[in-house]
Design a protein that fits this description.
alpha+beta; tRNA-splicing ligase RtcB; about 35% helix; DNA-binding
Length: about 475
DNA sequence: ATGTTC
């Protein structure tokens, strides 16, 4: 492990005050020795830098998928006092409300035999993918405002889903507090043609099978059983969210001196939560988050139609288990030093993992804790877990979000050949469809930390419980 | 992640 870091538990480490100047609280992160081998010193310094921000509460935190990001580390969690604290786009990420949803089907693997290629090709035809992908939907500028306020509900009201879907989304698919007037014309321009599109990079729509039921009782409550075919949607707010982040980072950088905020890194640009600039970022961030929920809802709808047509199953037989955000800032109540207080929790590449009885999780899951969905990298397992009371105590109800990159995109392109990768996955029975083989190289399994190990750490550390392991059968990518 | 360095 790095010098100056203290072990405080089997899988828990502390970055003490003083690791960088002006830290207000210690840093804490969760990691196994094997994951420690790929730990970047720069990411730990970022974790420590976050601890210098005004109003930070308890600890600057990171999950075992920690890696170097813009200002804040990816895999980072930080909570701020509502009066003294700040809000920062770097603590959310550029892809606002990047997230994941998991849907069950009534099919088994055998039902797919001989039809898997056709299924993947049909999904690829139905869901626009890739950088700059354009929607088949036509929405007006007025409708975009509705999307930014109503989120997934906008899609359901248009017939693209059911009201039961909404109950199974974090925030029921729309956070309150959207302020469309804080979203620039440029961001709107990027958002209008992209609703219902998957995007690129690690985003995907994957057909999976529930291979291993680790916790049968909870799996039953979540409505998933061994051998069941499922599909998973992983995407975010596309160009709109990216533009919102870009626009507001510029504004917040310009306001730092006004609020007397001194930063160790300009990428931590922030403003007091209750300031005009802070409120404007929050209002715009909510718009982008709601756009992302609408986006995943539309994509799920299109995929349901494909399954329906190909296998003759009813739309309603494909049940959304849950939809989680992993790049967002939220106002939540948490116990801090024995007292309940409202804080602004930033999760950047981290998933909410509220335990049994926590406010804000669907009633049907209240007694068992919320579903947590962790996507794997291409060709590797994904996981369904549940939130825990330990997460509530230690990480403001948060856990990891996925694998975490270990090789840059440019290095990956040099070291991996996309065509060989596609053929190798085909040999394992996994059908991959993308616009080009070149795009696949950047997302090869070996450029990510092993997701199974990341998930094992959060499970062992008690931040969430593994319920089901899912294996890929086929995937569409940008 | 991203009209992949406005």
């Amino acid at each position: 492990m790095l010098e100056g870091i203290n072990k405080v538990g089997d899988l828990e480490w502390e970055v003490p005050i003083g690791y960088v100047p002006n830290m207000r609280v210690p840093g804490r992160f969760f990691l196994s020795p094997s994951l420690g081998e790929t730990l970047e010193e720069g990411a730990i310094r970022q974790l420590a830098n976050v601890a210098t921000l005004p109003g930070i509460v308890k600890h600057s935190l990171a999950m075992p998928d920690i890696h170097w990001g813009y200002g804040f580390p990816i895999g980072g969690v930080a909570a701020f006092d509502m009066t003294e604290g700040v809000i920062s786009p770097g603590g959310v990420g550029f892809d606002i409300n990047c997230g994941v949803r998991l849907i069950t089907t009534p099919l088994t693997e055998a039902d797919l035999s001989g039809k898997k290629r056709e299924l993947i090709e049909s999904l690829f035809a139905a869901v626009p993918t890739g950088v700059g992908a354009k929607s088949t939907l036509r929405v007006s500028n007025k409708e975009l405002s509705d999307i930014m306020v109503d989120g997934a509900r906008w899609a359901v009201e248009r017939g693209l889903g059911t009201s039961a879907d909404l109950a199974r989304c974090e925030e029921e698919g729309a956070m309150p507090g959207a302020q469309p007037e804080t979203v620039s014309a440029k961001a709107r321009q990027r958002g209008v043609p992209q609703i219902g599109t998957l995007g690129a990079g690690n985003h995907f729509l994957e057909v999976q099978v529930a291979r291993e039921i680790v916790n049968p009782e909870v799996a039953k409550a979540f409505g998933i059983s061994e051998g069941q075919v499922c599909f998973m949607v992983h995407c975010g707010s596309r160009g709109l969210g990216h533009q919102v982040a870009t626009d507001h980072i510029r504004v917040l950088e310009g306001a730092l001196s006004k609020y007397g905020i001194q930063l160790p890194d300009r990428q931590l640009a922030c403003a007091p939560i209750d300031s005009p600039e802070g409120r404007a970022y929050y209002g715009a961030m909510v718009c982008a988050a709601n756009y992302a929920w609408a986006n995943r809802q539309v994509i799920m709808h299109e995929a349901r139609k494909v399954f329906s047509q190909l296998f003759g199953i009813d739309y309603d037989e494909m049940r959304l288990i849950y939809d989680v955000a992993h790049n967002v800032a939220k106002f939540e109540r948490h116990d801090v030093d024995g007292a309940s207080m409202e804080v602004c929790v930033h999760r950047k590449g981290a998933t909410r993992a509220f335990g049994p009885g926590a406010a804000g999780i669907p009633r049907e899951y209240a007694a068992i804790g919320q579903p947590v969905i962790i996507p794997g990298s291409m060709g590797t397992s994904s996981y369904l877990l549940r939130g825990t009371s330990t997460a509530m105590e230690k990480t403001f109800g948060s856990t990891c979000h996925g694998a975490g990159r270990v090789l840059s995109r440019s290095k990956a392109k040099k070291e991996v050949r996309g065509r060989e990768l596609r053929e190798q996955l085909a040999g394992e029975g996994i059908v991959v469809r993308a616009h080009s083989d070149a795009a696949l190289a950047e997302e090869a399994p070996e450029v990510y930390k092993p997701s199974g190990e990341v998930v094992r750490v959060v499970h062992e550390a008690g931040l969430s419980d593994i319920v089901v392991r899912l294996e890929p059968l086929g995937v569409i990518k940008g």
